């Protein structure tokens, strides 16, 4: 085992407590031969056997049949994982950053040596969505994946929605409770979700998608006011990882992105609260499937690691392999500009006859059709109007918003937000 | 392929439409070599190749690498499946009845010949809960499985709840719309759910559970009044397949049953509407997981079949095997009498001082503690009271209900229903 933090120490505990169960299921006793850590003298959970701690990760990797990598990040870990796979050790990892940045290299090493590569813990903790996409849906064609895959941001948005907090207040609360880190960048700016989106999209579409392919908008700009207005419109705001197969308008390809989105309050994803995760998959034959559960935390993530470990160990005994990276479809990633999206735009404008028709004209000239217009606030010379568009390209929507901003009757474009799940 | 009904014809269609995708994922082209049907002259979907139809299932089974069994039921199918496995052909089946009645025999045949046995389609259609329990959760210990696994009864209960229909009215509507069969016994009396419960419990607890081990109560006795009162109490009524590991009171074992149950309206299972299915799993490390999707229908069930088919085919090419039947834990099935349960009892009684205290006394004497008492209707000499108990054994609850029935102050025990999900 590489690393012995929150997840690692739970893996150690469960391997010990359930040794007999795991042996029966893997057809072999799982023997923990070493735990590589940076500081062997640091304090550990009481059940971690100190005699197994080592700071020589390279030697450990060379001697193990299965390497469980729970250090995370890229740097030296990339080298260790590649060394493990090159040496024929199976790898079980929860490292989304490594897979999203160096997926082809890591998968390639596994394929060359015939080793297994398992990574259920890399996406949505205990929620078995890697299994779901990689194995259960192997006979189907996925059209879309919509996921709440970051518990920190879901917790923050939930607190904003239910308690009327500002982003800053909710973040501070999440930090106090340990749901957000001191430096919350990776979570609140969407980078963590983007790595997971890349992994999910790769699996769903049998196409290589790296984190560099995923445009990201985080949740820093979501305001308490946005939340209140969403509620009024029967919606909630969620940070979504969205991967879609697009076949409109002769364009064929996939679109992958992470952004806050308005979701109808009746949509299954709207009911995902706190630090829970859920991934909704729309497949051609299966229709709508949802996987729901705890997306983080020591024990839930350890559950995913141990499921993978049993599979990898069982293959060592009986033969067989984890499914290999599947990239045969090689679908093109659509330029974000050509990606279809529905958007809600909120503007402050002059409340005078003809203004709304001018606004509608701007939409029409840019080829964006309007689904609904709602007046959300009134002032003599300062009305607020919320406009939801039908599906249109990002480029057309961007042109529309630019023209709105320049129109003299429009005081301000208050917010622009995507709408999903309708 | 054996059988070419609703699911089978969708499998044929998807195998044809997605031949290239399936070939890439299975590492081999899937060639449909024959379709055994009772009547080769009967009308078929236009895409079913008539030249592949045969009435000689036995010859077909002997010549195939993988047999997809979609006839259902036991009778001659049992023989065909065993013949396929004995001959080394992998079997993909959606046959819950066969597995729940003859699981050990069928799994044994697969193990003896080294063939794969896959059956995702046997439980909850497209919802990948067989994968989830058999593979994803292989490293965890499941404490409970609560499933809505029969779409027909869920549709009927949903119609009763939302439209105030009686059971008979909702059933007639479901039959008209094709959600229920002309003879609805297997669905409404819970036998279909019981077969699925047996399969889920076997997987969850690594223990042999057959359909004969599953006590069943169907939904025929659920009344419009029960529904209305459930709503008033913030609950809904669902037909649940419940499998639990029990370790209370020194008793250790599992309990598996199917019955209508009151579920809090805020519980994830309460949000499963119409013909959708969902299975909630509570595992020691993973916590609460939910799998949700379409539980029936041609295309969704075909999606599950094709996922299994890709796995089985891939093993034929690359080696490896589906996980074998895992029964090492061999947990005892608890006598239903010793199974813990929470129950809601509704009684009509004399509204006089001291009556409620007498009722509470009956609970107390039988060792059943009361969680809540609600007066739901009043009449001078005819009050309605709803009593929800804490967890207690079935035997103690049965004694309590018997004593209530005999008490002179109690006019009638109106209903007794289990409470789950709290």
TrEMBL record, chains A, B:
Its EC number is 1.1.1.3. GO terms for molecular function: homoserine dehydrogenase activity; NADP binding. L-homoserine binds at residue 181. The active site is at 196 (proton donor). Residues 344-418 form the ACT domain. NCBIfam families: PRK06349.1 (NF004976). Catalyzes the conversion of L-aspartate-beta-semialdehyde (L-Asa) to L-homoserine (L-Hse), the third step in the biosynthesis of threonine and methionine from aspartate. This is Homoserine dehydrogenase. It comes from Georgenia ruanii. The lineage of its organism: Bacteria, Bacillati, Actinomycetota, Actinomycetes, Micrococcales.
